[in-house]
Every structure is written in C-alpha cells, then in structure tokens.
Amino acid sequence: MTHVDTGVLFVVSGPSGVGKSTLLKHCLSVFPDISFSVSATTRDPRAGEEDGVDYHFVTRSRFDELVREDAFIEHATVYDRSYGTLRSTTRAAIDSGRSLILDIDVQGAAQVRRHMPDAAHIIVVPPNLAVLEERLRRRGTDSDEVINRRMDQVAQQLLACDVFDYVVVNDDLLEAHRTFNGIFAAELARCSRLGSVVAAVRGWAMLRD
Amino acid sequence: MTHVDTGVLFVVSGPSGVGKSTLLKHCLSVFPDISFSVSATTRDPRAGEEDGVDYHFVTRSRFDELVREDAFIEHATVYDRSYGTLRSTTRAAIDSGRSLILDIDVQGAAQVRRHMPDAAHIIVVPPNLAVLEERLRRRGTDSDEVINRRMDQVAQQLLACDVFDYVVVNDDLLEAHRTFNGIFAAELARCSRLGSVVAAVRGWAMLRD
User: Fold this and answer.
1) pTM score, whole prediction
2) Which residues in B lie closer than 8 A to residue A31 (C-beta atoms)?
3) Does domain A9-37+100-208 correspond to CATH entry 3.90.76.10?
C-alpha cells in the first residue's frame, strides 16, 4: 500500500437511516489502515466498552474544562450527554500517517472545517426523502411523532449538503459503495499528501536526468 | 448513476510501460459514461480508422491555422506528426455532462492546466525505475540504445510528477486499479460538480423545514 505522509481526516455525515453505517463498515474492511476516531464523552461506559478504545470517558467538569481550553475540533451535547473529538489525539494520528473517520452531524462537520481545513467532508444522502421515511417506518421502532421529528432533523441536515466536498447518493448500493470507497482511495492518492512518494520518484528521475 | 452537471476532464499521464493502458481499459469498463477525447491529427488515417471517431484528421495547414486561432487546449508534434485536443469539442462534451479522458504527456498536461483549470490530473508511476526498464526490455522490441533514450524520457516525465493532483503507484495491480477507478468515482461525486443533485436535496429539505 502506498502510504501517505500525513493521514486524512474523513468527516462523514448523513441522516439516520441513509445507510451510512453499512457504507462505513465496508469501507473499513477495504482500508484496514483507516480507523474511527475515538471521541471523548461524558456518558457512562456501557458493558464491554473500554476507556481509550471505544471512548475517552471523562467527567462533566473535565469535559467543560476541555471545551474552555479549546481542546476539541468539534463537540456537541445531545440529551445532556456531551461528545467531542480531541485535537491532540486527532493531530497525533494524522501526523503519524494514520487516517481517521469522524461520523458526525452537519454542525460538527462545520466545526471541523474551521479547525482542520484539510479534512475531506462526505455527506451521504438518500435518493429522495420518501425512501428515508419509509426506511424509518419499516424499522417499526418509532411512533409517527418521533418519525416526524426525525424527518425534520433530516431536512435540517440535508439543507447543508452543499458545504461538503463530496455527495454520495445512496440509491444503488453497489454504486454507493464504489463511490464512497473511491473517495477514500482518491484522497489517499492526492499528490499533496504523498510527499515521500513524490520525492522518491523525483529522486530517481534526477539521478537519470 | 448520479449524473454530474458538468463533465470532468481527466488528464492521465505516465511513462510508457507503466501499465496506463491496462488501468484505463478497466476504468472505461467500470464507467461507461466516460470516453476518450478524440484528438485532431495531421497523420494519415490507418486502415479502419474513422474520421471524427478515432481522430479528427486534418491537413497540416488546417492544423497550423487551428494553433494560430488558439483552438487547442494542448497540442504537440512528434516526428513531424501533430496532435491536438480541440477546445470546442472538449468544452461541448464537458458542458453536456460527459466526462473525457486525455492520455497525454506531462508537457500536454501543463498546457491543459492553463486552459482548463478544473481538470483532474493523474500520473501513473512505477514502483521504481528498474521495474520499468525491465518491462521495456522484456518486450524485446527495442535496442539498448532505444531503451536508454526511452528511460531518459521517462525520467523527464517523472520529474514533473509533483504538479499532478493524484499519483497512482502501479506496484500491486489490484490496488492500482482500486485507486485509479476511485479517483474517477471521487471526482464525479464532488459537490461542486453535482449542482442539480445538491439543488434537489436542498429542495426537499426546504419543503420539509
């Protein structure tokens, strides 16, 4: 595998039910060198969850301190639980050539854009809204009211789709996989990220020239 | 298939023997909507070649006139035969949403960069120079002198690899295919090229919002 000098931070967004998890799972199997970013969170560990592997579990006061120290490249609070991505661990991974995936919403993506302008931003969208609503209904776990509220959130997320670098329409699954994985392959083949490869190639060329 | 509003002009360069044709052939089978650009040339048609399909066959005086009119986005003369890519036909294809591949050398790529700044530039490089020289020797068609001259040309081409957007190292063929095709998929999924898709998504979202 051709290795990048500097890893890529991949920001992946998309409404619930759009098939993002399936795309991400397949992508991670194709690119074993890419991993999920580990978030800091104030929520309690669930059974089997390991500190530093699944999450960095921190107290509320520590989390708030980290926010004040501007230690996060993005953070959000959902139902009293806070989640955030630490700048230090992200930077360390990227600088050592490892690539990371951040699965976050549009608001988080905008925060990352400000802190890490070199990240690649991908949004997964459904072929239309009816398909998504149908998928949520078919799960059968939510009431009409919850589904309606969710669809309003979906709409809000999708309104911001134009600020992403890439749009993957999850209509035909095979094509969506190809496009999604293709984006990862392409970003890892960017000349600007392959300084050592470029230097090596130019090195042989100069010796010959 | 998600369709781009504006096609992508893919510039593909790489030294002879690097496996570019194999990569391109596979890529075209995966993306049936992408086709090779048809060049204008002063050389005579060979048996079976069709004007407007294989090449636009033009006289020397017509070619020179086109050069004076700045009608080419790139052109080159090799052994008295001139080849060029017409701005008009390229523009028409791109504007109608069709994507084109230009298989040209580094000098041609630099000309395209000036005329069509939105093109995606890919260079295919060997894992090292010895591999390439070995491949040329194994063909058994060229003398040592010819191979030496070719290798000097290869070195010249590779020296400029840092001006490309993407570098594909053709070491492991499967990985090279994945990266090469991935670049095409990714460029076709760029938000900036998917105006209609983005507008449609924002359209539903606004209706819901």
Assistant:
1) 0.92
2) none
3) no
